[in-house]
Design a protein that fits this description.
heterotrimer, A alpha/beta, B alpha/beta, C alpha/beta, A: alpha/beta, Rossmann fold, four-stranded parallel β-sheet, 11% strand, globular, B: alpha/beta, four-stranded mixed β-sheet, 6 helices, 25% helix
Chain lengths: 251, 218, 523
């Protein structure tokens, strides 16, 4: 099986450690993963801000880059849902606008092959215990697109629960959005910040030292809020916890 | 051009050509006709439970004991008079003391407002939702008589008048009649989205489940 | 819609004030969280919820696709049952029809059941201008009317008020409108409800004209359905001699049987009850019971324009349950008034810009009043994909294009104020089309990382006023991969020194610097 890492532009640029963690984790599980260097951005920010037409070339590019792989793994529920849920919709819209089936046909192959990391681990590899060791108290925030668009369900928490040394504590109001929302964070910064503050306070109330999620964009918003609120917690991407072992602790 | 034509024209342009689609084929009716399996007795129990859950006061009695029970309920309430629909079964209030006020088309709203209680039958009752449905039949009277007084006693013949679910209720009701669905006494969620009983309709709803009785139109 | 809302600031500015109003925040949080949990329980009681939801969607979609036929059938059935049907293309026409009907009775006052349609058209103001006083009889509407306030929720228009505030409004205002509030009124909800009961009763008993909306209109039978809790609906629908119902054309359902779906999904979604206390159903007029004259005013007012949009028309499936408001994290913090419409919350954010167009500042800002978290779609009992429509309307705002307004096709220019964003999106598109350019940008950012500020000037302050920026790592992933081909994956520079690059450790470096920048952040 040829497996490609679709890291996402945000992770590539700002969170390379998450990428390295995915590579380390998958190699430990015997999966050789490739990073097609031509990858850039899935086009989600364009699409969700109202620039669907500008997102189309990015989606075509994605399809060109990843089309030949058997599986495309991404450590982002948000970008994963862009491909899985919104690429088909972009195709439909193009058709409804009187253009031909071209876009839909181009995008169709990558849709079913794209997996968010926890889906790939649990559904494709069939593992929940990935042999990780992480001696921290962790609370998990299910980010919205992973939770509602992809329906990740309890996959992330099953993976976390199997990590040795990890004490998983429930986050009150876990299903509520953290307030990031892409350009929402800037266009409606007051509401976004209020949501972020409430999420951080809820996480603090658990007594955990780590707030885990499977989307770095949400963690960027929450982490930035945490330092401003001077909380003692740290935001950590799920992949980095799963990559951590007793011999090679991640952080 | 009339506004009707304007609106219908806009609808036509908005939709463009629409293919003929038979309505019944367009909707999957694969939802439940009723929820769960119950014996007739259990269905009546569920009705009683759900009525009580929404703060109706539920009594159960046999046909023979009904007049005595109604007498006691009205007396307990201190009702001096009681509104009655045009064809309440004559025996029901045989033992009751209060003055009967008959539902007549002529009675004013102010007169209605002076009534202490009202006693009626019902068309059907829905167990899953704890709902009574009145359809203006002669044993129920006009809609206003069960609205203005502060105390409503509704008699339900069980199990004949009880259905399990909303879909079953609609099958048995006549849309041509004025229908009032009642689930507990009047209530509001308007203060902090929390339910409080007792606003404009009757603040006390008593439901008498009568068993062993003939059907309403017998 | 109502003139009350003209000149509303755009959503972000209105929301800013709400976010800072601690009483409002507490009121909204308390109310929405109370109802959220209850709704989830009420819905969980029905194991066929998903199928009911799908059937509701299908019924509404089919109805909308054949809306003309169903309306004609409805008109025929209502007329046959003794009612009179009027058609109103817009708010002014609907207001004129109702005003003339009330005038013809010779009455100077009407009692009203809470109705979104009459609020949308500003009926009370139109009647007042004609010398006719409209009394709102729903408890929350009464609170709003007495408080000279605006509604902020579809189901509970006074949700922004807590019990203490309601007590004060009643004690202060009731006397000017009729029976004063009882002496020594406390803030106990039961006492407040009692005060409303006493205050309104004299109005119900003397009213000759009632005005309502309707939740459903059954085309095959001509039956109207009003779902309510308090009994004020029953009062207005049965005691007056004349009943006028103003109803949006999208409220029609084809068959009597269709009610079996909505009477299960609506109460559980709105008040989280198995069934609401009272539902009234009437067909035309009935001899000797209830009003002797019934008028139905069918209202378009932007609905056919909405219908013309293939993506946006799903908003017309809405049954006004307000579950999407109650679950929305943005509504919870911004409050209903920030939406500048009688339709607040997620549904309002897709309905108002379609019914009114996106010409005003507030309407153009509404599609952005969402983090697209999808909680609204999840709870919607007719499966309106609100995030999909929001994004679709964002597209209309930034890119313009063809849409329908007042029944005519119009070409919309891209909205002003998005020029910089458009340019940025274009630039990003160019970079992302060329991996080499992306790499060059990343390297430039990495080289200058020590010089990056923790807070940003100008528009960037929208982020950095409350959040630190992430630290740019020394090396992007793609450079690392090129160097190592993925061998020896570990945190950056696995010697373990520079762990300050990943999300997990951004805070490590950021916290110290964040502190030094606090002064700037507040600026």
């Amino acid at each position: 099986m040829r497996v490609a890492l679709f890291l996402t532009c945000v992770n590539d640029t700002l969170y390379p450690d998450t990428g390295r963690a995915v590579v380390k984790l998958l190699s430990r599980l015997g999966v050789e993963v490739d990073f097609p260097a031509a990858q850039t951005c899935c086009g989600q920010a364009h699409y969700n801000t109202g620039y669907r037409h500008q997102a189309e070339p990015l989606a075509r590019h994605f399809s060109d880059v990843f089309g030949e792989y058997d599986a495309i793994v991404t450590p982002s529920g948000s970008c994963g849902s862009m491909v899985r849920e919104l690429y088909p919709r972009m195709g439909e819209r193009a058709r409804a606008e009187g253009r031909d089936d071209g876009l839909a046909r181009t995008l169709a192959p990558v849709v079913p092959k794209t997996y968010e990391l926890t889906e790939f681990l649990v559904d494709v590899l069939g593992v929940t215990d990935v042999g990780a060791y992480y001696p921290h108290t962790v609370t998990y925030h299910p980010t919205c697109h992973g939770l509602r668009s992809l329906g990740l369900g309890d996959r992330p928490t099953r993976l976390l629960a199997a990590v040795e040394g990890l004490d998983l504590v429930e986050l009150p109001g876990a299903r509520e959005c953290c307030g990031f929302g892409g350009t929402f964070a800037v266009k409606n910064s007051d509401v976004s910040a209020a949501m972020g503050t409430d999420k951080v306070r809820a996480a603090e109330s658990t007594g955990a030292d780590v707030l885990c999620a499977a989307d770095n964009s949400c963690l960027m918003h929450l982490g930035g809020t945490m330092t401003r609120l001077r909380t003692a917690m740290r935001p950590v991407h799920l992949a980095e916890i799963l990559a951590s072992t007793e011999k090679e602790p991640w952080s | 051009m009339s506004s009707k034509d304007v609106i219908l024209g806009r609808i036509g342009r908005a939709l463009g050509p629409v293919p003929d689609e038979p309505y019944e084929a367009a909707v999957d009716r694969d939802y439940a006709r009723e929820h769960g399996e119950r014996t007739t007795e259990q269905t009546v129990d569920l009705l009683a439970e759900n009525l009580a859950d929404y703060r109706a006061i539920v009594h159960r009695t046999g046909e023979d004991e009904l007049p005595d029970l109604l007498m006691r309920l009205l007396a307990y309430r201190g009702a001096r008079n009681v509104l009655v629909p045009p064809a309440l079964p004559p025996g029901w209030l045989a033992a009751a003391d209060p003055v009967r006020i008959h539902d007549r088309a002529a009675s004013t709203t102010a007169e209605l407002d002076r009534a202490d209680s009202v006693v009626t039958g019902c068309a059907i009752a829905i167990a899953e939702t704890g709902t009574l449905v009145l359809d203006g039949s002669p044993d129920q009277g006009r809609r206003r008589i069960t609205l203005v007084p502060d105390h409503h006693i509704c008699v339900v013949r069980v199990p004949d008048q009880v259905v399990s679910s909303v879909p079953q209720a609609l099958e048995r009701l006549d849309p041509g009649r004025p229908l009032t669905w009642i689930s507990g006494p009047s209530a509001t969620s308007d203060i902090e989205l929390d339910r409080v009983e007792g606003v404009h309709g009757p603040r006390t709803l008593e439901v008498v489940l009568v068993s062993g009785s003939p059907t309403a139109d017998a | 819609m109502s003139g009350t809302y003209l000149g509303m600031p755009a959503f972000p500015a209105a929301a800013r004030d709400a976010v800072r109003d601690t009483t409002l925040r507490a009121n909204l949080r308390h109310a929405t969280h109370t109802i959220r949990d209850k709704r989830a329980k009420a819905v969980a009681e029905l194991d066929d919820w998903a199928r009911l939801r799908e059937a509701g969607r299908q019924i509404k979609d089919h109805t909308l696709r054949h809306l003309g036929e169903h309306l004609l059938r409805l008109e025929e059935a209502v007329t046959a049952a003794g009612g009179t049907v009027h058609w109103a293309a817009d708010a002014d026409e609907a207001n004129r029809i109702v005003t003339d009907l009330v005038r013809a009775t010779g009455e100077r006052e009407v009692v009203k059941v809470k109705s979104m349609a009459t609020q949308e058209i500003g009926l009370n103001e139109a009647l007042e201008a004609a010398g006719i006083h409209a009394y709102e009889t729903d408890l929350a509407e009464l609170i709003v009317q007495l408080g000279k306030d605006r509604p902020s929720h579809i189901l509970v228009p006074a949700i922004h008020r807590n019990r203490g505030e309601i007590r004060d409004i009643f004690a202060r205002e009731m006397a000017q409108w009729g029976r004063p509030a009882p002496d020594g009124l406390t803030d106990a909800p039961a006492e407040l409800a009692e005060a409303a009961r006493l205050h309104l009763r004299e109005k119900f008993l003397r009213a000759k004209v009632g005005v309502s909306g309707a939740n459903f209109m059954v085309a095959e039978t001509g039956t109207m359905v009003v779902v309510e809790s308090e009994g004020n609906g029953r009062m207005c629908l049965t005691l007056p001699e004349t009943l006028i119902s103003v109803v949006g054309i999208e409220k029609v359902v084809p068959t009597w049987r269709d009610l079996e779906v909505f009477l299960q999904t609506l109460p559980r979604s709105s008040t989280a009850e198995r069934m609401n206390p009272y539902t009234s159903m009437w067909t035309g007029t009935t001899d000797g019971d209830g009003p002797t004259a019934f008028h139905l005013v069918l209202l378009d007012n932007g609905r056919t324009d909405t219908l013309a949009d293939e993506v946006g028309r799903q908003a017309l499936r809405c049954i006004r349950c307000s579950a999407c408001l109650n679950v929305c994290p943005v509504y919870e913090r911004a409050g209903g008034h920030a939406y500048g419409s009688v339709y607040p919350g997620p549904i309002g954010a897709i309905l108002s810009p379609q019914l009114r167009g996106t010409a005003s500042e507030i309407d153009a800002s509404l599609p952005y009043a969402s983090s697209l978290c999808g909680a609204c779609y999840e709870v919607c009992p007719v499966a309106i994909d609100i995030p999909e429509v929001l994004v679709h309307l964002r597209e209309r705002v930034v890119q313009g294009g063809e849409f329908t307004r007042h029944g005519a096709k119009t070409t919309l220019k891209p909205a002003r104020g998005h020029a910089a964003e458009r340019a940025a999106m274009r630039a990003a598109g160019l970079v992302f089309a060329r991996p080499g350019l992306l790499r060059a940008g990343q390297r430039l950012a990495a080289r200058t990382r020590r010089a990056h500020p923790r807070t940003l000037p100008g528009p960037g302050r929208a982020w950095s006023a409350t959040r630190d920026l992430p630290t740019v790592p020394k090396e992007s992933f793609r450079d690392w991969w090129q160097r190592t081909q993925g061998r020896g994956a570990g945190p950056a520079g696995s010697s373990g020194t520079a762990s300050g690059t990943a999300s997990g450790t951004a805070s490590g470096t950021a916290s110290a610097e964040g502190r030094t920048d606090e002064g700037k952040a507040g600026a």
